[in-house]
Design brief:
- The structure is a homodimer.
- By secondary structure, chain A is an alpha/beta fold.
- The first copy, chain A, has a single domain, classed as Rossmann fold (3-Layer(aba) Sandwich), CATH 3.40.50.
- Chain A is about 35% helix and about 20% strand.
- An eight-stranded mixed sheet of chain A has the order 7-4-1-8-11-12-13-14, sandwiched between helices. Chain A has a two-stranded antiparallel sheet with strand order 2-3.
- In chain A, helix 3 crosses helix 9.
- The longest helix of chain A is centred in the N-terminal third of the chain and has 19 residues.
- Chain A starts with 14 loop residues before the first helix and ends with a helix.
- The relative contact order of chain A is 0.16.
- The N terminus of chain A is likely disordered.
- Chains A, B: Belongs to the PPC synthetase family.
- Chains A, B: InterPro entries: CoaB-like_sf (IPR035929), DNA/pantothenate-metab_flavo_C (IPR007085).
């Protein structure tokens, strides 16, 4: 149905730019690369055997947080994309609840699954040391804190949550490629939920200043190159059968739906989640080939978020997609 | 001794640039501004009365973490300065231990006092929920976690630690000015320990794109203006009697000491702490009018840091400075 039918669905993929991006990107290091690949291989093997009721398990890669673009090789300054990682973290919880195994590709330091409703510094804000030198949780936070710790541990322990951190755009795209290649074998049971805020622009490594840029004299001019679009190559080459959802964030509502629609067609996504910076915690619009669906958080329940109905819709559509492929 | 003797010690201060920076900076908001000023006033009042042994209390403003420079008014992208905030957080602990009251002006999300030796996500990495649904700390982390929670609470409870968060360069410099003006009354008992990584360049608010910059076509050129240097105005006008230490971070050792020395003279600092990106956790060089002092962490003790001997040296010099002024 939604699967691709050969390369005619795609605009021309800028293979030369993509090759040059990866060739010039600083390496993750042999040891780190081997470790990530092994963790992925084990995770996919464990989660690709049929579950107890005989149906194939599903695996989703959730990306979360913003990527950085270094301005210097020995990096002191960088360009960053604003993202708390809240959407990715909360969505991960709902995917786990729906029975998915989740590869959580997240920006170091951003919001973690099960922690999205806790204070910024839970250790300092939620705990006390009693006179008997025991650590206690404030009554007001007790249920949430216990839930966060035990649900997180349980997901890790049963092998259904793999967390992989990134910081730079170079790390993000290299690791995303490893994940996609390892999830390829899952066919339509694989999903990509690309909620990370990925830089559109970067400074190519070889044209980057080696040392900290000096502020001695006058203004600073920076020229940024476009990051080659990786979504088409993810869809066409890395994991062609996977169900793919990308995100579009704009601050200008006038161009948001147009841009989301363009992304749907240009990158051959199955769904594009359009969100506007100011209202993104209240509602999103899911753009599909068959029309747009507005998802709002349940205003009648305090604490209800937009991720719960969003993930529910996506899981339903993923089920339909899997059926259509078998 | 080290106090300034009139304006001849300073290069010409760019008052017009500074005025234009503050005039065009987005406001913190009336409510936020009032709250910060009240907290500061109460904190300084509480900590400026003589202590039990009759000596005047000392107050240090420790700045920590990097400032961001928004590239768009409805900010999605920004330039950031790399800084974990570890140095500021660890130094705050030693200043508190030495009897100082500390105003901790920190970048939201960076390292907090008493947490500098804990894992990144202490909640998820240090705790477990037992079968009786009690929260317990792993044995390996127990002492550090208890220490962090109780020492932090104690410092807040006895009123000797005031934490003020910032994100952007605009917030940082506005709040720093409030702090300096409120600490002015402390004379030589005030200290500024300016460990934050402050942007040298910014996009003036009025010339900033309103909406998210579009990636439609070709490379992106950004012109950044220089942030006017605020150190001379802090020294000359905001808090002229305060003891001032600034930090200089470079990746190129060849220019580090020269730049630190220049900062000492140009901004009339009492000390400049020179650190090189790669070795900054092992050693720093403290540049003063009377020569340079190399401070190394105690290699014979695992877990010893460079901040302990650094703060010890600075406290000694501050004592000498106070004596010289009375």
């Amino acid at each position: 149905m939604d699967a691709i039918n050969g390369s005619e669905s795609f605009e021309e993929i800028p293979y030369a730019d993509i090759k040059s991006f990866f060739d010039s990107a600083p390496s993750l290091g042999d040891a780190a690369e081997t470790k990530i690949k092994e963790e992925l291989e084990n995770f996919i093997r464990r989660n690709s055997s049929p579950s107890e009721n005989g149906t194939a398990r599903r695996v989703v890669c959730v990306t979360s947080g913003g990527t950085t673009v270094p301005l210097e090789q020995r990096c002191v300054r960088y360009i960053d994309n604003f993202s708390s990682g809240h959407r990715g973290a909360a969505s991960t919880e709902y995917f786990l609840k729906a029975g998915y195994a989740v590869v959580f590709l997240y920006r170091k330091g951003t919001c973690q699954p099960y922690c999205s409703s806790l204070p910024d510094d839970p250790l300092l804000e939620c705990f006390e040391v009693s006179s008997e030198s025991n650590i206690t949780v404030h009554q007001t936070h007790a249920e949430k804190v216990k839930g966060a710790i035990s649900d997180h541990r349980a997901a890790i322990a049963r092998g259904s949550l793999l967390k992989l951190p990134f910081t730079t755009i170079f790390e993000y795209l290299q690791i995303l490629q490893f994940i996609a290649l390892s999830m390829r074998s899952l066919g339509p049971n694989a999903m990509f939920y690309l909620a990370a805020a990925v830089s559109d622009f970067y400074v190519p490594w070889e044209s980057m200043a080696l040392h900290k840029i000096q502020s001695a004299s006058g203004p600073l001019d920076i020229r940024l190159a476009q990051v080659p679009k990786m979504l088409p190559v993810l869809r066409k080459d890395w994991a062609p059968m996977a169900f793919c959802i990308s995100f579009k964030l704009e601050t200008d509502t006038k161009i948001l739906l147009e841009k989301a629609d363009m992304a749907l067609k240009k990158y051959n996504m199955h769904m594009v989640v359009a969100n506007e910076l100011k209202t993104r915690k209240e509602e999103v619009i899911v753009v599909t080939k068959n029309g747009n669906i507005t998802i709002r958080r349940d205003m009648t329940h305090a604490g209800a978020d937009v991720e719960e109905p969003l993930v529910k819709l996506i899981v339903d559509r993923h089920s339909a997609y899997i059926s259509s492929q078998s």
